[in-house]
Amino acid sequence: MFRCPFCGAMARTRTSRRLSDHTIRQYHQCQNLECSESFTTLNAFERRVSSRDAPAMLPPAAGD
């Protein structure tokens, strides 16, 4: 959920489109019936917060 930039009410994400490996455009609609604005936001990878020295190895799946 995202807040409507026009009235401050909650807005529901209706759909999204991948623009690149690290960026998604999301389409929202305000849930306030008197406003009902539609708008887009961009969701993008910014930076890594923490890093592991080596990736953890997953155990084999059961039955393999």
From TrEMBL:
Residues 3-47 form the Zinc finger Ogr/Delta-type domain. It comes from Serratia symbiotica. This is Ogr/Delta-like zinc finger family protein. Pfam families: Ogr_Delta.
